[in-house]
Design a protein that fits this description.
eight-stranded parallel barrel, two-stranded antiparallel ribbon, TIM Barrel, single chain
């Protein structure tokens, strides 16, 4: 694999309101040193000032940051919310955010659905979504990073999930947020080989990765909750991803049942340990822009 350059490095942790006060008990100079970068949802912080805004600034001054959106609705039928995208761009500039990632899904029609819905895996949808991604990229003046999502049904499917993702990335000329847990969840729910799926992805488009826990509803149904510890099979899949693509920045997501920071750092340390095992097989990454 050729030398690559990432915008962020190491192992990351999603910054959640539940953890802010705990982390701020210490001065920024005492923040956890093993955290290489952090991530927030822009919808939860745009327009927030006062004490909370100042708290966020303490973190963005200390760590590199990515933003991971929840409501761009990149595959939805309603017009793209360009006003919001401009707000995101301003937010990124104010806090020196490295890049913007979003879900390859939709979440709104006439109203917000409060969930991430699967985009139909069709050629028409590829072109539609790619055009919307290109428009976002024109506004933010850099590549958008799209995440492979978990899904529970595929209405009107014409393409496989992997072919759909690859076609969107190629047509839009965007980057990939590789969610390892989502691959595992989908592989169980839709009965495919997660390693074969990994092997078919464009490794040179990986900007960073996510790893998270989930909930087993049944033997053949997993719900992507981000509310539990990462299981061994997902850790193994991350190990295989590093073998295939080299080490890429990887963030621990935890959105529910959030434990104390010291417990989260145990899993961050597991990411670091895996990365260190593979550090001799990669020397950097591709440039983004």
């Amino acid at each position: 694999m050729s030398d690559r350059h990432f915008l962020i490095n190491g192992a990351g942790l999603g910054l959640r309101r539940d953890s802010v006060n705990e982390l701020l008990k210490n001065s920024p100079s005492s923040f956890p040193k093993q955290i290489g970068f952090m991530e927030v949802a822009p919808e939860n912080w745009i327009g927030i000032g006062g004490k909370t805004g100042k708290q966020l600034h303490q973190f963005t001054e200390h760590y590199d940051f990515m933003i991971h959106g929840l409501s761009l609705n990149i595959g939805g039928p309603t017009p793209l919310d360009e006003k919001f995208v401009h707000q995101v761009k301003d937010f990124m500039h104010r806090h020196q955010i490295k890049a913007y990632s979003e879900h390859l899904s939709y979440c709104a029609d006439d109203g917000h659905m409060y969930d991430l819905m699967p985009i139909p895996f069709t050629e028409d949808a590829v072109n539609y979504v790619a055009d919307r991604i290109k428009r976002v990229q024109d506004i933010i003046e850099q590549r958008l990073i799209i995440e492979n999502v978990s899904y529970y049904a595929a209405p009107g499917q014409q393409l496989s999930e992997i072919d759909f993702i690859n076609a969107v990335i190629a047509e839009a000329d965007c980057d990939l947020l590789l969610d390892i847990n989502n691959i595992y969840v989908n592989s169980v729910n839709h009965n495919y080989d997660p390693l074969e799926f990994l092997q078919a992805l464009p490794g040179d488009r990986i900007a960073y990765g996510h790893i998270a826990g989930h909930y087993n509803e049944a033997d053949d149904l997993i719900v992507d909750t981000h509310g539990a510890e990462v299981i061994d099979k997902v850790w193994q899949l991350l190990d295989q991803a590093y073998q295939l693509f080299g080490v890429f920045p990887t963030l621990l997501e935890r959105d529910f049942n959030i434990p104390p920071v010291k417990d989260l750092l145990i899993e961050v340390d597991k990411i670091i340990a895996l990365q260190n095992q593979h550090k001799d097989s990669t020397k950097g990454s591709f440039a983004h822009g």
